[in-house]
Design goal:
With 262 residues, the chain is an all-alpha fold. The protein has 2 domains: 1-43 and 229-262, no CATH class; 56-220, MetI-like fold (Orthogonal Bundle), CATH 1.10.3720.10. The protein has helices spanning 3-27, 45-51, 54-87, 93-101, 108-121, 128-152, 157-164, 169-180, 182-198, 201-206, 213-220, 227-261. It is globular, with a radius of gyration of 23 Å.
Amino acid sequence: MTRAGRYIYAIIYLVALYVPILLIVLFSFSSSVYVAFPINGWTVNWYAEMATSSGLLEALRNSLIVAAIASVTSTAIGTLAALAFTRHRFVGRSAFGLLMLLPLALPVVVVGVALLSVLILAGFRLSLLTVALGHVIICTPFAFGVMNSRLDGLNRDFELASADLGEPPFVTFWRITVPLALPGLIASLLLTFTVSFDEFILSFFLSSNSPTLPVFMWSQMRFPDRLPMVLALASAILFVTCVAIATVLALRGRDTMREQAT
């Protein structure tokens, strides 16, 4: 492919990726309930309606609760599994690593149907806890991957020195390993929180009368007059995401400048 062809391909890719997102933001300020050009007027009423919608606020609360539970639990499981995988040699170690990552290769709809069937057979009532359980299953491989990479790259001399000084394994883990692995822990928490917050299929299968935000947005899109509020909600989520990414990049840049200065 020529250089001009690569430029054209890159432009087409960027247009296809970002123009629909920009259109969501644009139409969220339209005064019409219909998504169409030309835009007849501008308003922020959809954002005001979004802020006063009790159903939306409840769905947001549900998503935050589920994402918090899923991110903390999956990060804890992934960290312990990565610690065993990187610090010990045991029979079936390779199979263990593959099994930890297997949910990434399984269709989410298959996981949802299987988990729903098991929960119904076991007599569990669908609730936010069942949703969180499903999210933990799909988030744990992400946590394991992040923490496995982080722990595998750590200098083990500090851990060995702590052990030589007579510290118990748990004390060594808490005082030495955890501080060194803190960037990986933060990255795992953020990644799994995002995956859980965005998950629709498992939330749809495993929730009852308490929908999460993606399920709420999907249910509202069936009504044409509520589409503008959904667009406003999507734009608000996009704005928060951009602010979070910019904050992380700014903090990383500041840390890099400090390291270079020292």
